[in-house]
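Box 3.1 A note on notation
Throughout this textbook, protein chains are presented in two layers. The first layer is the amino acid sequence; the second is a token string describing backbone geometry. Keep the layers aligned when reading.
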Amino acid sequence: MVPQRIRKYDEGIWVTDDAWFGVTPEPVANKVAHHVAQNAPGSKAVLIDCFAGVGGNTIAFALSGRWKRVYAIEKDLGALTCAKHNAKIYGIDQCISWYHGDCFQILKAELAPLGQYSVVFASPPWG
């Protein structure tokens, strides 16, 4: 099950206990990233992932090469620590800006100026 869910798991990927239930399987994250990239207006150069978790979708967006910058917001510090580490494993940690906290507050207080250039992706954890 692990190789289907996260391809580079054996290379040192970190996942919290809770994240096993919410992380988007890598093939699905890649498909979502592809669809978003294809359907976003050309004027949109920034992707904001409001619920980054351990990085599943965030990493797929960064790997797509479509975005000038990916911004990842995560409320759970443990999950955010995993996401940062996992992005390094995939070699795209420099393509992502990380934010710890409530996505609504961060969108309003820090990322609002990027709004006209952004696609906002939100896949909240379930449970």
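The chain is about 40% helix and 15% strand. The longest strand covers residues 69-74.
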